[in-house]
Amino acid sequence: MRSFSLIWCRELMAYFLSPLAYVIMIFFLAVMGYSFWFLAELLAGGNAGVSVMNELFGSFFFWMPMLVVTPVLTMRLLAEEKRSGTIETLLTAPVSDAAVVLGKYAGALSFFAVMWLPTAAYAFILRRLSAESAPIDAGPLLAGYLGTLLVAAFYLSWGVLCSALTGNQVIAAMATFAMLAMVFFAGLLGDSTHNELLRQACNYISSVKHMRDFARGAIDSRPIVFHLSGAAFLLFAAIRLLDSRHWK
Q1: Percentage helix, strand, coil, to 5, in the chain?
Q2: Domain containing residue 136
Q3: Which of its termini does the chain have fewer beta carbons within 10 Å around, N or C?
Q4: pTM (global) more than 0.85
């Protein structure tokens, strides 16, 4: 547990000491800030039927940073250790492979959560500036953040696995983006197929559909189980990949 905590803190601090991390954060906040401005314009224009939660947690401005930021956050986690040769020193230290993978993963997930913290101010700004007394409900808002964290946990685990597969950061980022795109668009096929079994399977893996449910305040156990079990499986695969280096 101590080794996991040390690696977690080390990775989290490494993000804040990296110029690339600040570029990522600026990009993310710029996109989300534009999304908030666009939402405010819609509400100010009196557009009926505008869903605040769907705009915050289901629009293009939500998914675009999710698909772009995740590969960049995770590409260096294990690939850079392999490229520099420090992975051998790390693996021969008195620390388990699981602690290495989970510590680095926890650091990436923590930094992702930190990036989202400023967006919590959007709810208070809308409440303050809107003529309505309570333009958004706390239940769907909290559910939306829960869904965001679950999707991030699943997507970041893909990044850790891809980073464990190669010693090149660029290849790791491209592989992660490709896998996330496949999972993302596969989930959208449910709306275009007439096969009931395939439609149900696509809906089960569709992060877009899950986020729509969370944005309505509907917390279902199925998306929670899917994202957590998927993340656990991918992290287990990354741990086994590191463990295989002991046999080479």
Answers
A1: 85, 0, 15
A2: 2-247
A3: C
A4: yes
